[in-house]
Amino acid sequence: MAFNIGLTSRSRFDFTVRFAKKSFLFSTKVFAEKFHKWECTKDTETTERDEEDRVETNSSLPGNEIHGFKNEIESLKNFLLDQKVYDEFKSLVVVGEYGVGKTALCKTIFNDDEVKSVYAPRIWISMHSKKSKEGLDKKIYVMKKILKVLLLEDDLLKSFRIEASEEARAKLEAGESDGDTAKEKELSDLLYALHLNLRWKKYLVVFDDVREEDNWNEMLQDDEFKLNKDKQWGKHLSGGFPKGSGGRVIYTTRDVRMAMKLVAEEHEIHRLWPLSDPESVWKIYKAVIEKIYTEIPRNNKKCIEELMNKSRGLPLAVRSMATLNPVFIDDFQNPRLSESTSPEDDKLPSTSS
Hints:
Distance between the termini: 35 Å
InterPro entries: NB-ARC, P-loop_NTPase
Shape: elongated
Number of domains: 2
Organism: Microthlaspi erraticum
Largest sheet: 5 strands, parallel
GO molecular function: ADP binding
Protein name: NB-ARC domain-containing protein
Pfam families: NB-ARC (PF00931)
CATH architecture of the largest domain: 3-Layer(aba) Sandwich
């Protein structure tokens, strides 16, 4: 619930200064480490990833209005609604750094009325989950998540594993092993089940936050080399996604190298950059503040410039700054505090910190 803070002209100025000191210093400390880590690893060969900021997502609309992504929204809608390639299978990767808004953008598109009127089923898969994976191969785990959305029962999914294990054991005992493990046979059965459930349907699947360790690093387009090399069904993930009915797959990832593995052409990679429009950044900050206070600091040029510098145009950083408890000073009620505010105190923190 919003409450009135009753700012005086002096306290408005004080708020701007304290906002800069407290909010920006806090955000620099919290976010700089993650951004620095991302920048240090994005162009290296290491496969290590920071898991502490990885969360399980769902398809629900963001709890806040997104700003500054009008062109990106139109671009993704065109990808999904383009009549010229209406029946072709297409995939696209949205790639960008932590906090830039990849998931929020895709949620907005996923829940768009025009998109909903064209695509059925629409499936949202969070590549991360807090639930136990029970030692499952990640591809098998993800396939089962998709099939559960398509309302396949748990008993049926369990039967795939049991039958695959029994078949592999029987062939081994008979000396007729074809080299496939029980997991490979199970994955093959799951891919076949997925293909049957998506066949003739104009489906949309979003894979959110794909990472190297997920082992989900294959293009889903049909590949002549793969088809000629492996005639057997279920050797590749692409087999589970029917072609010819206009299916679409969207991925989000932070890793440019991963993005290049998921699609065939560079134009299928959609780079999402931090916001460069100060007005959009201010709207994000203001929207959060208005939920807490009935009055907000003035959007003076210096405040907005510092907001841009410290948030780097990343929506998540802007919202986190806004959720901090700002310090309000009233000269008449807090003379001791106001007297201690010297010109030296009013200096804004350096952007290099």
